[in-house]
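Q: inosine/xanthosine triphosphatase, please. Structure only.
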Amino acid sequence: MEPPQKQKLVVVASNNIPKIKATRDGFTQMLPDSYDFQGISVASNVPDQPFSDEETLRGATNRAQNAQAARPEADFWVGIEGGVETHDGPICSFAWIVVIGNDEKVGKARTSAYFLPEKTCELLKEGVELGHADDMVFGQTDSKNKQGSVGLLTSGVVDRAAYYTQAMILALIPFKNASLDF
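A: Structure for inosine/xanthosine triphosphatase:
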């Protein structure tokens, strides 16, 4: 009889429920194995509301690296950072996902983007973080730990976890194709 297989530890650089669920869903679909998913609160070292593509990617990278420093025994470290950017006036929302493996392989992917309502954009320009702006505009509480902006705007057709899952799968491409250089 073979000994039980050791679970691989995946540390998600957040305690946000949709981010942990998206990580679990992406890993189990892309790299079927036995995993233990654990959230950890670490700094992104960028503003609470990143306002550019570059700043958002840096936040996701920093989160993954800070999780790695805090929990070096893990097999994978995942950073997910939501951000916004302007496009000729309107503001769109998106996220970056960075996965670091214990072999130092790195996978990155960006979610799709969607435009935000004017009231939300006004609050963002005043310095309000997207999750808080959504709560104010939609009369919600702690929506970023639930369906998120995308869930509110799609009436739940796409919730925050589902929104992140596709990008999580794409960030795992280098691990799925380990014999290729990325």
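A: Brief note, in case it's useful. Residues 8-114+159-176 form a domain with the Maf protein fold (CATH 3.90.950.10).
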